[in-house]
Design goal:
With 530 residues, the chain is of the alpha/beta class. The protein is 40% helix and 18% strand. The protein folds into 4 domains: 4-159, Alpha-D-Glucose-1,6-Bisphosphate, subunit A, domain 3 (Alpha-D-Glucose-1,6-Bisphosphate, Chain A, domain 3, 3-Layer(aba) Sandwich), CATH 3.40.120; 187-298, Alpha-D-Glucose-1,6-Bisphosphate, subunit A, domain 3 (Alpha-D-Glucose-1,6-Bisphosphate, Chain A, domain 3), CATH 3.40.120; 301-443, Alpha-D-Glucose-1,6-Bisphosphate, Chain A, domain 3, CATH 3.40.120; 451-528, Alpha-D-phosphohexomutase, C-terminal domain (TATA-Binding Protein). The protein has helices at residues 4-12, 37-53, 90-98, 102-115, 136-149, 162-174, 186-201, 218-226, 254-260, 301-319, 336-344, 356-363, 384-392, 398-413, 421-435, 439-443, 479-487, 515-528, and strands at 29-32, 58-63, 72-78, 125-130, 155-159, 209-212, 235-238, 274-278, 285-290, 296-299, 326-331, 349-352, 368-372, 378-382, 451-456, 465-467, 472-475, 494-499, 506-511. Strand 6, helix 8 (218-226) and strand 7 (235-238) form a beta-alpha-beta unit. Bound molecules: 2-acetamido-2-deoxy-1-O-phosphono-alpha-D-glucopyranose (GN1) and magnesium ion.
Amino acid sequence: MSSTKDFVIAASSAYPKADQTFQYGTAGFRMKADLLPSVVFRVGLLAALRSRFKGGQYVGVMITASHNPPADNGVKLVDPMGEMLESSWEAYGTKLANAASDEEVYEYYSQLEKDFNLKPDVQAQVVVGCDTRESSPALVDALVAAVNAVGVKPSDYGIVTTPQLHYFVRCLNTQGTDHAYGEPSPEGYFQKLSTAYNQLMAGKSNSPVTVDCANGVGGPQLRLLTKYLNDSVSVVITNDDTQTFSKLNSQCGADYVKTNQRLPPSTTAQPLARYASLDGDADRIVYYYTDSSNVFHLLDGDKIATLAASFIVDLVRASGITDFKLGVVQTAYANGNSTKYIEKLGLPVVCTPTGVKHLHHAALAYDCGVYFEANGHGTVLFSTEALRRISVHEPNTPAEKTALTSLQAVTELINQTVGDALSDLLLVEVILAYKAWSPDQWDSCYTDLPNKLEKAEVADRNKYKTTDAERKLTEPEGLQDQIDALVGKYRSARSFVRPSGTENVVRVYAEAATKGEAEELAQKVKALLK
Ligand SMILES: CC(=O)N[C@H]1[C@@H](OP(=O)(O)O)O[C@H](CO)[C@@H](O)[C@@H]1O
Ligand SMILES: [Mg+2]
């Protein structure tokens, strides 16, 4: 009779490893899709181990390369409550992915079984989802082959957004408990979001919003979602061709708009109308508009964070709830003026290293933690205790009752597992309708400092070491002093350099009083890296 060992080795041999070193980074493994089959196979084994380690709870596997080009793909694990994989396990993923032979793959797998004392009677449960890329179905097959080899039948959600998969995982693991998150199905997801949205928007309306879906999975999913929404806002969907694979993230999408700070070329913007762009797996969203002089204005993750934070603080106060701690979490890429604005609102604001897991973790310290990366990836977390207080709070006046009902709906509208472009879209639409704000009114809360993000190819990005939430370099020695000297020459300037966690590059960020100065500073700092 064949053993697990035989099964794993035989199955693994169908997915030979490319001659390459792999690393589980900020977004899992991400690279050219043709290098990935062996990696995904091995991630499947890791997912099964992780599930057993978690007592047989469901663990998710998402196959996507988000905003990256069509030829790329990637894979990452989702932990039981819908969070990113716990950091300490990333190294096991890296080691499995780099095992030199099929035998070594099995040896390391069984080593982890022993190290974590995983009992054979705890059955693993794995769910998988993927984005719309041409390479995705074959990678799902590799994942299924791995999980099957260790005797597990995974559930395949097919083509879904990354945040949907996070939502499903949390729903599956909380079913039947007092903190059940929802129905673990696309239908359940749409129901949950739309019920909250329709309640919040009852009697309200706003002008149409146009959503560029990056020709990715957000398009079809948003189309489905809109069927559940009342007609308070008409959602116009663009760039939703998922059949022409080469169009994914090409000249459109959140990353294009944020990086280039311009409209997708396919968009002819009506002045003061609202536009939004999602990224390829719909976990990021940015808004933008053109003013009456046709000048483009970006409303990025920082603007969404400040909008959400001020709205929620107002609702909490208006509900009569006191001693409620709301904080905002940002990264070094947050615009300096957004940070000042949050401080002026009297709210605590903290800075963490790049990568959602860091922000998410820091946001858990508050009753309500609002976290966003400037590029539009973020969400709002309510602590269990905060949710309990909101649910038992007794309003003293009809006005308090109204605010409290809205606050409760907001907690349902937000996908609290991870940043979710569709949920964030609905949240922004609700807030703008409540405030009766046009995009320029929203924009006028504070003025972004002009900024520039550059990337530099370097021989070895691992030579760059940072401290202070990545805002300062400790290595290579002396480089930070040179950066500081340059920054000192510009007005309202700030600049930092950090190694990317997802690409083999070093990123350079600069902001200054004028666009010209920000761009010049970025170029000069970049030149230091040569
Ligand atoms: C400047 C920037 O946008 N960095 C992105 C990018 O990380 P890097 O470590 O900078 O490559 O990809 C991450 C994963 O998607 C995302 O969390 C992060 O915000
Ligand atoms: Mg993404």
